[in-house]
Amino acid sequence: MESIEQINYIKASSAEIYKTITTEEGLGKIWTKKLKVKPEIGFVNEFDFGEESLTKMKIIALEENKKVIWECIESDQEWIGTSVSFELSEEGNKTKILLKHYDWRELTDYYRWCSYNWAMFLQRLKNHCENG
Fold it and tell me: What CDD domains would the database entry show (predicted)?
């Protein structure tokens, strides 16, 4: 099984970052504007990227200001069955965010493209949290 791992350091509190990655308002500003999101374990978040089908992520874990885990139950074939985690830890005046997208069945060009896009996601998150 393959795993994408990306890290970034953001000059914002873990509470602000957590709110951004767990709410419609936050994810709507950094990922896609067409979405249904609720910060509740068991809820299935829906993201519309203008493709043939929605991306649906079931919330597996929420630890306020510390951790979020999603399991992909509907999306591109390569995403189904994978999980995405966000781990937050404050370090001085910054918060470290470690993003993992794991349980990929194989290393493909799509996997590589997604790795790049997760890095861009973290950059948009940083820009949003630091600059509004």
Answer: SRPBCC_CalC_Aha1-like
